[in-house]
Specification:
Layout lengths: L29 E5 L16 E5 L6 E3 L28 H14 L1
Antiparallel strand pairs: 1-2, 2-3
Length: 107
């Protein structure tokens, strides 16, 4: 997710029940993606620390609540900036490219 660092992107969320609960302070976890706000609708499931995605220490495991597979084409988005509508794909495709590159590097 490194190449998406600092971006604020819309994404579909298809859940309300699943949420991250952490017993320790935030610095004990590798939180890779955060929701935009602490309350609904910015954090639709109330996850601790606004967590939307978390990674294992070595990067082999990644878990996330939102669905980038439903948001990588501009026409899939509920909202996409008018000035960017000529984009063929959204920045979310980078999540899949990054995963492929990680696997290639670690094979």
């Amino acid at each position: 997710m490194k190449s998406l660092e600092g971006m604020k992107l819309g994404i579909w969320v298809a859940h309300g029940e699943g949420q991250f609960h952490f017993p320790y302070s935030e610095d004990k976890y590798r939180i890779a993606i955060k929701y935009s706000h602490s309350g609904y609708p910015g954090n639709p499931n109330g996850s601790d620390f606004n967590t939307a995605g978390i990674s294992s220490e070595d990067g082999r495991h990644f878990a996330m609540m939102p669905h980038p597979e439903r948001s990588f084409m501009t026409w899939q988005c509920g909202y996409y900036p008018k000035e960017k509508m000529d984009d063929e794909i959204t920045p979310w495709i980078e999540a899949f490219v990054n995963a492929r590159e990680w696997v290639k590097k670690h094979l």
